[in-house]
Amino acid sequence: MTGTPFTATTLGSARIGPNRQLKRAVEAYWAGRTDQAQLHALAADLRVAGLRELHAAGLDSIPVNTFSFYDQMLDTAVLLGALPPRVAGIADDLDRYFAAARGTGRVAPLEMTKWFDTNYHYLVPEISSSTTFSLHPDKVLDELTEALALGVPARPVVIGPITFLLLSKGVDGTAPIDRLDELLPLYRELLSTLRETGADWVQIDEPALVTDLHDDPAGLVTRVYGELARATDRPAILVASYFGDLREALPALAATDIEGIAVDLVRGTADPVASVPALTSKLLVAGIVNGRNIWRNDLSASLATLATLLGSAASVAVSTSCSTLHVPYSLDRESGLDDTLRSWLAFGAEKVAEVVTLATALRDGRDSVDQALDACARALAARRSDPRVHDDGIRERIAAAVDAGVARGPAAQRRAAQDERLGLPVVPTTTIGSYPQTSEIRRARAALRANEIGVDEYERRMRGEVASIIALQEDLGLDVLVHGEPERNDMVQYFAEQLDGFFATENGWVQSYGTRCVRPPILYGDVRRRHPMTVTWIDYAQSLTDRPVKGMLTGPVTILAWSFVRDDQPLWDSANQIASAIRDETVDLEAAGVGIIQVDEPALRELLPLRAEDQPAYLRWAVDAFRLSTAGVADATQIHTHLCYSEFGAVISAIADLDADVTSIEAARSHMEVLDDLNSIGYANSVGPGVYDIHSPRVPEVGEIVASLRAALDAVPAQRLWINPDCGLKTRSTDEVEASLRNLVTAAHIVRAEL
Ligand code: GLN
Ligand code: ZN
């Protein structure tokens, strides 16, 4: 065993490529336009370029095996021989891998879910009684060899057995964590192979230790790392935690004979770390540079924190708090940023530079980096005093809106007023908002971006789209229409671009899952709505039809969840500011005659804190922000909300607290069971359980929809039931949408006749 302590590192880095090259290459391979050799060559180029950059920046230990063709949990399932049996028949390794990730015509993919409380999604391994684990270390060994050949001080990274099992799904009654003992010999074998191949250190990621996923994390740690540390033919072991505090798992880890522990000092705190006695023999990897947000580090404050830790461990290395997978590559790629704003930010490359600066200061003293410290202090001072960041006028308005209350009239009174105003049939039909984003729409948007057409021409084309979407819905016979959202690139960015306080990046892409990348806007200052954001579109749509057109807005929690948020005020403060802007929009829509307004909150569950004890406070402010954004309208204006999922978990009671008049949710895949969940918490407003799954290209038959509706009517009286698909239609083709909705309307008529 070796393991010379290092001083500067990162826990992982982005892999999609600074120009999203990997996305394009993988998609080209899927489309059959390129072969595996080309794909592998591009992947190697990207990895090598990334390694060289981290090395040149001055890191003295560099993570490898953080590359992935799709997802690191899927890679771990391959490493441990735990792919589901249904893909076993696919002979080619890479094709089998992609089949597990995205399915084929014959086999279903693994489920996908959020990686802790980030916007990255991982594939959920399935562990059943027939799973027999076996070690397949080719990928990690190849990437280690590749890095060592470049002369890079490479530290292979693998997901640890505790996290792997706690995040896996048990099939046929298996509790994955019960299989822990079967994995330990595989990890021992892996460690010895890595040592043989030349690794000095290995990083074993155990982020599950910062959650409530298991009731005895300390016990698990003692079992696993007590055992793995006993081996002698192994690299030094760094157990990495991130996204929160280790709590009782920290002393347990420190008591084992592993060599290093990485802690998240951004989400977690330094105090408990400083007081763990057994750390004195270990390398402490201090995650002080935020790997998840885009703000420049306060180097001075970081040095002060690091100073409190110096005596508590044998040595201290500086690191990002987690992989920089969650932030864009580099500020160099943003040309539209003004210099002031730019000076407040740090993307992936800038974060690595911050790590190196801090490590240099620890080694050579503060004076050795005084220029960097000065530049940092100036930027932070500018940020604190910038009028865009703090606007007292906005704050006063919001305080007044909060004081005015976030409650609407009693639900029954609202229902009566709305029934009278809207005169809708029983079990009304509607859709969730978006219609297919056709290639004409995408082309127009690209042409606008490339300045080939002007805003007027773009808007003219989008009005054409709205007109045909309205005509389609009238023809189908839907009761409540939508304008179809053709003008929206994205349901968050569209609003962020129209709000002061937000900045939309040009190239700030981050991986969301597989080849899908998102470009979260940056919330940096107090939020002000410059002008109405949606009114002309809804107004135009309404002018084309006598049926009611629903106004479409994104809710404050979802806008926050899908943005990089401020770190200089509590999240709820930002939530209230956004809510206040959305509230202004609802009031303007109402004044324009719009009778139904939907405020989508598909991300309500996403921001839920990882520890149960922190969840009630979050739900309180999240619910209040939604209510603030919707409570400015009269009783006769109907508020809808949409949530994208049916497993509410800890957010279930919040659904009733939102107090929307109508809540549409996913239900098709869970056979309407979600309605029982809503009943169990006393939800008494209307509900639109999705009657078919829009994630699949399959057109639902009338009979199936009728059956779903009858099941829904067993749980909910007709007066409270709406009929809709389970999400927006933007990813479907127009043909699929037309056929599916035709069947939906037919089913509605059949069921109405039975009432
Ligand atoms: N109104 C949005 C749409 O239909 C809602 C999308 C979502 O829930 N993610 O596309
Ligand atoms: Zn949805």
UniProtKB/TrEMBL annotation:
Reaction(s) this enzyme catalyzes, per UniProt: 5-methyltetrahydropteroyltri-L-glutamate + L-homocysteine = tetrahydropteroyltri-L-glutamate + L-methionine
Pathway(s) served: Amino-acid biosynthesis; L-methionine biosynthesis via de novo pathway; L-methionine from L-homocysteine (MetE route): step 1/1
Cofactors required: Zn(2+)
UniProt-listed InterPro entries: Cbl-indep_Met_Synth_N, Cobalamin-indep_Met_synthase, Met_Synth_C/arc, UROD/MetE-like_sf
Residues noted as binding Zn(2+) in the record, renumbered to the chain: H642, C644, E666, C727
Binding site for L-methionine: I432, G433, S434, E485, D600
UniProt domain Cobalamin-independent methionine synthase MetE N-terminal: residue ranges: 8-310
Binding, Zn(2+) 1: H642, C644, D657, E666, C727
Transmembrane region(s): none
Listed GO biological process terms: methionine biosynthetic process; methylation
Residues that hold 5-methyltetrahydropteroyltri-L-glutamate according to the record: K23, K114, N119, R516, C517, W562, E606
Residue numbers binding L-homocysteine: I432, G433, S434, E485, D600
Record Pfam families: Meth_synt_1, Meth_synt_2
Textual note on the cofactor: Binds 2 Zn(2+) ions per subunit. Binds 1 zinc ion per subunit.
Group of enzyme by EC: transferase
Active site positions: H695 (proton donor)
Residues annotated as domain Cobalamin-independent methionine synthase MetE C-terminal/archaeal: 428-749
UniProtKB keywords: Amino-acid biosynthesis, Metal-binding, Methionine biosynthesis, Methyltransferase, Repeat, Transferase, Zinc
Family: Belongs to the vitamin-B12 independent methionine synthase family.
Protein name: 5-methyltetrahydropteroyltriglutamate--homocysteine methyltransferase
Native source species: Williamsia herbipolensis
